[in-house]
Amino acid sequence: MRKYLIHVILFIATVFTTLFAGALQQGINLFKEPIRLWEGYPFSISIMTILLGHEMGHYFASKVHNTKATLPYFIPAPSIIGTFGAFIKMKSPIFTRKALIDIGATGPLVGFVLSFIACIIGLKMSKIIPVTTQEDLFMLGDSILFSLLVKFTLGNIPEGHDVLLHSVAFAGWIGLFVTSMNLLPVGQLDGGHIAYALFGRWHFYISRITLFVVAAFGVFYWYGWLVWALLLLFLGLDHPPILLWENRLSSSRQIVGAVSFLIFIITFVPAPFRF
Fold it and tell me: Most exposed residue of 6, 48, 76, 186, measured as fewest CB within 10 angstroms of its CB?
């Protein structure tokens, strides 16, 4: 039990920081009314479920392929969402392309499904409000998928109006955004694992082209992409070799790879945040 202590402590700490973030999103002044911290539970439960589902997807896929991995480490943070995410550590090599694509894709796929559900539920509780001015207004960008979900659940938004997202919908939006970032085919991100399993040595070029595109989006759309590009450069653009390179991946694994990159395309947001 002692070896799981750090995981439990970080998980509990992140529950509290996401509760804090969720309460602040509702306009609650926790310095005056700390007892109302619990009212942030819709956001906290939603975002924690999405992050936990993503990481446990990786964890169980690793177990299936006899690859040693830790339980998730959550990262509490004093931010608008109360966390910097979660991660697991791989403690043994990944042996085959099949294992690599399963481990790389399962996390984003589970996270995507949970985020999709949160978006649907949250959008049904969201409100359409008149917008008289966009000055000093914090706005979220839309991916292809999120735009379709808004239209499906709320219909056409009248001119001069916008959607005030419920905290559950905001958690779903964050989940989709995190999914798209993880599916970038760079280095050892989830998308990098998938790209390496599918294309082998071509990953070298795919990784560098993607980094260039991310940096370009940073120049023309959102400066945060420049920070992300620098972080990716620091983490490394290459992928370590696997021990057994099968001549051919099964059709089912190729479909998983294709679906993963389709999810990346429909969840990608060129300008995630606008002020």
Answer: 6
Show Cβ contacts of residue 60 under 8 Å, excluding neighbours closer than 6 positions.
Answer: 106
CA-angle at 206, arms to 251 and 198, nearest 5°: 15
Burial of 198 (0-12, 13-18, 19+ CB in 10 A): buried
Largest Cα–Cα distance in the chain?
64
Show the tokens assigned to 248.
Answer: 């051919």
d(Cα 87, Cα 43) in Å, to the nearest integer?
20
8 Å CB contact between 19 and 82: yes
Cα 81 from Cα 244, distance rounded (Å): 40
Query: What is the per-residue pLDDT across 214-239, written as a single tens digit (0 to 9) for each?
Result: 999 999 999 999 999 999 999 999 99
Answer whether 73's CB lies under 8 Å from 87's CB.
yes
Give the distance from CA 243 to its chain's centroid. Answer: 29
pTM, two decimal places: 0.94
Q: Which residue has tokens 């294709």? A: 258
In which region does residue 187 sit, left (phi positive, over 0), alpha (psi from -120 to 50) or beta (all else)?
A: left
Nearest to 162 by CA among 135, 126, 124, 116: 126
What is the DSSP code (8-state) at residue 30? T
**41-51 confidence digits (pLDDT tens):** 999 999 999 99
Beta bridge partners of 83: 76
Q: What are the residue boundaries of the structural domains of the chain, listed by start?
A: 2-274
